[in-house]
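Dear H.,

Thanks for agreeing to be a second pair of eyes. The structure we're designing against is below in token form, covering all 218 positions.
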């Protein structure tokens, strides 16, 4: 009998503790996992999806060269078309492969290599002399843009056997005649072909004095 009544008083105690527990202050902090509300997870999912879409639309494939508003290298290229037409663009490639090493990216040459930028040889009205220079080379003293170059240790090599396509030489010359502020007209593959045929027996590099005897233009 006694034991029973003790039990029931314990029950009462427990239920009064439970009631007190519903008050906020008495909640014991617990360690453990609590499920996140589903709306929070959904929102996080939507946020990640949006961020991912934004990055793939605007991130430019994480290229260091791209920034807003350009989303891809293609978009950037389309907004900045390279200057010149197809022939000067092709000519630039020929230049970079063969001539850049001496005349440099700036067309300024350096040391005993004369500049092509602002050169009277390059900007001549007709291509008669520069086609010859490129085909068979140039050595000995030459005056370019008011300066004298010795043409002894550094000479202009011949390209007749190295750049064999007339079109490549035409594009190359069109390019150097219009780059770096040069303003001369384009050179055609037919013009190159004609000069190539006329000089096919020429075997040594030119001297400037001999070239000056060749009319600059037909
Ligand atoms: C190995 C170095 C070298 C390379 C490569 C070279 N050149 Fe030259 N170029 C020279 C030198 C040196 C001269 C001057 C020669 C002289 O003093 O007689 C010259 C002179 C010239 C000239 C006449 C002078 C002037 O500056 O206008 C032209 C035009 C020219 N080069 C174009 C070209 C082109 C086009 C190419 C590529 C196909 C080329 N060069 C590749 C060294 C080079």
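And this is the sequence the design step returned. I haven't edited it by hand at all.
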């Amino acid at each position: 009998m006694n034991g029973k009544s003790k039990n029931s008083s314990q029950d009462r105690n427990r239920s009064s503790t439970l009631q007190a527990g519903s008050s906020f202050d008495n909640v014991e902090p617990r360690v453990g996992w609590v499920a996140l509300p589903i709306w929070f997870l959904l929102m996080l999912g939507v946020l990640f999806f949006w961020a991912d879409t934004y990055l793939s639309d605007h991130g430019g494939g994480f290229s260091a060269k791209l920034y807003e508003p350009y989303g891809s290298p293609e978009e950037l290229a389309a907004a900045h078309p390279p200057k010149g037409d197809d022939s000067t663009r092709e000519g630039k490639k020929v230049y970079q492969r063969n001539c850049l090493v001496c005349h440099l990216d700036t067309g300024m040459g350096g040391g005993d290599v004369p500049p092509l930028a602002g050169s009277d040889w390059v900007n001549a009205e007709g291509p008669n002399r520069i086609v010859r220079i490129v085909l068979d080379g140039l050595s000995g003293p030459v005056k370019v843009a008011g300066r004298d170059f010795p043409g002894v240790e550094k000479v202009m090599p011949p390209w007749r056997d190295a750049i064999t396509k007339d079109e490549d030489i035409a594009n190359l010359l069109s390019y150097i005649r219009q780059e770096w502020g040069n303003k001369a007209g384009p050179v055609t593959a037919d013009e190159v072909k004609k000069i190539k045929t006329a000089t096919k027996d020429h075997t040594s590099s030119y001297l400037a004095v001999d070239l000056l005897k060749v009319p600059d233009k037909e």
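Two observations from my side: The domain at 86-211 is CATH 1.10.760.10 (Cytochrome Bc1 Complex; Chain D, domain 2). The first helix runs from residue 2 to 21.

Warmly,
E.
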